[in-house]
Amino acid sequence: MAQTEIQARLTSWLSELMAIPGLSGFEDRVRGYIKSELAKLGLASRGDRLGNLIATLDGDISKPAVMLIAHMDQLGLIVRKIEASGFIRVERVGGVPEKALPAQEVVLALHSGRTLPGVIANKSHHATLPEERYEVVPYRDLYVDCGFASAAEARAAGVGIGTPVTYAPRAIELANGRIGGTAVDDRAACAVLLEVARAAKQGRHLPPIHLVFSVQEEFNLRGAVTAAQTLMPDIAIQLDLVLATDTPDMASRGEVRLGGGPAVSLYSFHGRGTLNGCIPHPALVRLFEEAAAHEKLPLQRSVHTGALTETSYVQLVGAGVACIDLGFPCRYTHSAREVCDLTDLECLARLVLAGLGRIGRGFELDRP
Questions:
Q1: pLDDT tens across 287-346, in order?
Q2: Are 343 and 297 in contact (CB under 8 A)?
Q3: 217 in active site
Q4: Which residues are CB-contacts of 175 (< 8 A; sequence separation ≥ 6)?
Q5: How far apart are CA 240 and CA 18, in angstroms?
Q6: Cβ atoms of 177 and 122 closer than 8 Å
Q7: Of 27, 37, 195, 217, which is the active-site residue?
Q8: pTM score of the predicted model
Q9: pLDDT greater than 70 at residue 273
């Protein structure tokens, strides 16, 4: 099936974004690319001290101001020790699944802008004891092999304590318009936000819109809070993944399927350490349900625990921000090869634009 114009743009942006390493706290390369793409669209952008990239579309100031958020960073690892042998020990950054780490290809992002390939070691199968075969090796016992023969050789190549490590970048075009690979979370939403920026720039009678490409979401959701404290929006809309539940291992978790269209989160709660989540503002739920119905767009619904987004904290800024999470279904989250669907991404962009266009001067956010 031929791609639509929107899908072609999304494919290009997403493939390029997925190829750029950007560990949480080290998003500079991703930020530089997005800044350049915004400039091509004729949009000026600015950064803040934490590293967020913000572009503002002036709109009707009598309407509620909207902040659209997509995070630029990805989870990964960071160098904590270089062994005398040249092997590299790492710490986790974000919710990295330990069971998915052994034998993975990784890249180390060096200060010079270069990347250095490596492999996370996996004990030789021929030497693995029967009782070890079904064990998950703690990440602290793993090490990265870049081929170095000594610590001095590793340091001479530019590796140091604090060097960021991510899954080796890869974008794979699968059947039926699916894309697989690294950092679909949340580079897919960054691509959607670029498409929204392109279309909204040409629109009329929209509310003021702040496009926020945020940092450090995977490191306890930090970036968007700083942006919200500066922008003080009335409404915040987070664009992120929604857990697809159409695989055999996820069937009991919900009714969200890949290719079924964008989804709205009606409840999220983390529950592990971070006792936080988001119950969306009812006016925003109605807004997007009505927008989807009017535009004949599919809209799936999600309720989940174990995950959360930046709206969990943004909603508490100032006197309170009306928040909602909209997203694209995603399989195999936080692994080295996540999967999304281009039709879902296109529909998400169209849904956001339709919702923005329905925010009028009398749009009521106060609770009765």
A1: 999 999 999 999 999 999 888 899 999 999 999 999 999 999 999 999 999 999 999 999
A2: no
A3: yes
A4: none
A5: 15
A6: no
A7: 217
A8: 0.96
A9: no
